[in-house]
Design a protein that fits this description.
This protein is 67% helix and 0% strand. It has three helices and no strands.
């Protein structure tokens, strides 16, 4: 149950952030939607079929940190648990 809440919370946060951003073209919205779909499919497959036990919260946290690290050294994600 705790795992489900973590997943729902992370995806809700991600969708809220993306929903608040205004894009100038439908192509960009399509690309974002497509990439989120791919991410969700990979995430689901890893959690269902990976040989070892996985921690969904750690996977999302690592993914978000890696994504932000690729942007610049100043953009930092603070999870709700650290506020």
């Amino acid at each position: 149950m705790k795992r489900r809440r973590i997943l729902i919370g992370c995806f809700t946060l991600l969708l809220a952030v993306l929903g608040g951003v205004s894009f100038s073209s439908d192509d960009k919205q399509f690309e974002i939607s497509k990439q989120l779909s791919i991410y969700g499919a990979v995430f689901r497959e890893i959690n269902l079929f990976y040989v070892d036990e996985t921690n969904p919260g750690d996977l999302v946290s690592t993914g978000v940190k890696s994504m932000l690290k690729s942007l610049d050294p100043y953009t930092i994600f603070y999870p709700e648990s650290h506020m």
